[in-house]
UniProtKB/TrEMBL annotation:
Alphabetical list of PANTHER family matching this protein: FERREDOXIN
Required co-factors: [4Fe-4S] cluster
SUPFAM superfamilies referenced in this protein's UniProt entry, alphabetically: 4Fe-4S ferredoxins
Protein name: Ferredoxin
Ranges that cross the membrane: none
Signal peptide: none
InterPro entries, per database record: 3Fe4S_ferredoxin, ET_Ferredoxin
Domain of life: Bacteria
Keywords, alphabetical: 4Fe-4S, Electron transport, Iron, Iron-sulfur, Metal-binding, Transport
Pfam families cross-referenced by the UniProt entry: Fer4_15 (PF13459)
Function: Ferredoxins are iron-sulfur proteins that transfer electrons in a wide variety of metabolic reactions.
Length: 101
C-alpha cells in the first residue's frame, strides 16, 4: 500500500465511487476534486483513474490520494444527490457518504 493512499491518521487506503442512479449532475464534486471526479456528456459524475481516464463502469472505484482526501470528503458531504461513497479498500466499509453508520 502506498503512502499516497493512506488516510491522514495513518489508517487504511480509501477508495471512492459514485452511484450514478442518484447523481443529480450538479458538478459540485468536480469543482472540489477535478482530479478525481468529472461530469460526462450524459450530465452525470464519474470517478477518474489515477491517470485521468473516466471510469464509466457501474460501481467503478478509484483510490483516494491522500493530498485530495479533504476535497473528496467535502464532495461527499456537499453532494445534493448523496451519491458519493468513500470506503476502506480492505473491508469495503463506508467511512464517508450516505451509508455511514
Amino acid at each position: 500500500m502506498s503512502v499516497q493512499q493512506r488516510t491522514s491518521d495513518g489508517g487504511e487506503a480509501l477508495e471512492v465511487w459514485i452511484d450514478q442512479d442518484l447523481c443529480t449532475g450538479d458538478g459540485i464534486c468536480a469543482q472540489y476534486a477535478p482530479e478525481v471526479f468529472e461530469l460526462d456528456i450524459d450530465g452525470l459524475a464519474y470517478v477518474k483513474s489515477a491517470d485521468g481516464e473516466l471510469l464509466q463502469g457501474r460501481g467503478a472505484t478509484t483510490p483516494v490520494p491522500l493530498p485530495l482526501l479533504t476535497d473528496v470528503v467535502d464532495s461527499a458531504r456537499e453532494c445534493p444527490g448523496e451519491c458519493i461513497h468513500v470506503r476502506r479498500v480492505s473491508d469495503k466499509v463506508e467511512v464517508y457518504g450516505p451509508d455511514v453508520e
